Amino acid sequence: MSKRVWQEAVSEIAPLDEAWVSKASERLDSLTKPPGSLGRLEETARQLAGMTGQLTPDLSRKAVIVMAGDHGVCEEGVSAFPAAVTPQMVLNFLSGGAAVNVLSRQTGADVVCVDIGVNADLSHPALVSRKIRMGTANMAVGPAMTRSEAEDAIAVGIELVGEMVGQGYRMFATGEMGIGNTTASSAILTVLGDTDPVDATGRGTGIDDERLKHKRDVIARAIAVNRPDAQDPIDVLAKVGGLEIAGLVGVILGAARHRCPVVIDGFISSAAALLAARIAPLSASYMIASHLSQELGHARLLERIGLQPMLRMDMRLGEGTGAVLAFPIIEASVLIMKEMATFADAGVSQSGEARQA
Fold first, then answer.
1. In sequence order, what DSSP letters do the residues of 293-337 get, joined into one string?
2. Catalytic entry in 295, 319, 331, 339
3. What CATH architecture applies to the domain 2-56+337-346?
4. pLDDT for position 205
């Protein structure tokens, strides 16, 4: 059933509508500015028009979907924080006290927190409980999960976006929580990005040199033990990924299916984005990269997808924090299209001289 869910979603992802991209270009060139002078804002406006079939889409209803799951590989001592932090932070999200909550309030976005694989029994009125299993297995000794569990987790993201589109949401951001998830993301980059673990693996929560070397060794061992197939992204996800990463793959595919922009956060979110792009190449057209993380390997992930980050803020928190910061920039591109005067409206000649009455 879950396999059919993601396959149907992939089959319904369409390319950007080039007619609307052209209409956006014409509109932008008619505005009172030199052609192309607003740079990435203009690029974003064209992309949004191609996605939505509108020059000025209403993106005011927006949310960051924070997928939460635990990682069995934490047994190997790859993180500076214990796995118990994952459920503690989920409760922090739900009470509104995390960085992503603060930034979402500032930008007018909702935070939707999903328990897709936390290794604890959680209950809260605001929690979206879609648990597949109590955390992944230790990928250093065997597959993180079964293929069917990975497909089930992808389906969770797809179906959640479908529900939220029905509620009026039109822009999504990817967020995550899961101690150990930079290890899984580095393994995904190593396999899908044909990258050495040394170049794919950073310090995550702030580990020292000795533990960083150990983390790289664990990733190399996990890949040797599981032999993930680089030509089969779901095999890679199941063997060395995470449940929250799989959920975000579904969020990205679901957003693309419904022709909605999906704003990609940092390293873990970009690992999910690379998986989504390999599963459904057309989905990359609906992605907007928010920022370049400090985490080693993030630039490589974005390059593999073909994305350029909007911001460079030296952030490495995750949670969706960088993605939420990009929301106002994306909305600014719509306002330029909607509110800026044309040369004709303003009585300004395109050579820069005022027209004579």
1. -SSTTHHHHHHHHT---SB-------TTHHHHHHHHHHHHHHHHH
2. 319
3. Orthogonal Bundle (1.10)
4. 83
Per the CB < 8 A criterion, the answer to whether 51 and 18 are in contact is: no
319 labelled catalytic: yes
The 10 Å CB-count burial string (b at 16+, else e) for 34-72 is eeeebeebbbbbbbbbbbbeebbbebeebbbbbbbbbbb
The identity of residue 187, as a single letter, is A
Question: Cα 118–78–86 angle (5° rounding)?
Answer: 25
How many alpha carbons lie under 13 Å from residue 29 in its C-beta half-sphere? 6
* Angle formed by the axes of helices 243-257 and 233-240, nearest 10°: 150
Give the burial class of 339: count Cβ atoms within 10 A of its Cβ; 0-12 exposed, 13-18 middle, 19 or more buried.
Answer: exposed
Structure-token pair, residue 181: 């998830």
Is domain 62-328 in CATH 3.40.50.10210, yes or no? yes
76 contacts: CB under 8 Å, gap ≥ 6:
138, 140, 214, 218
Query: In a 3-state reduction of DSSP, which class is residue 345?
Result: helix
Q: Where in the chain is the domain with CATH 3.40.50.10210?
A: 62-328
Q: State the 10-residue block means of pLDDT for the chain, 357 residues long.
A: 93 98 98 97 98 98 98 95 96 98 98 98 97 98 98 98 98 98 97 94 90 94 98 98 98 98 98 98 98 96 98 97 98 98 93 47
Measured distance CA(293)–CA(192) in Å, rounded: 19
Query: Phi/psi of residue 142, each to 5°?
Result: 175, 180
Please report, in angstroms and rounded to a whole number, the separation of the first and last CA atoms in the chain. 68
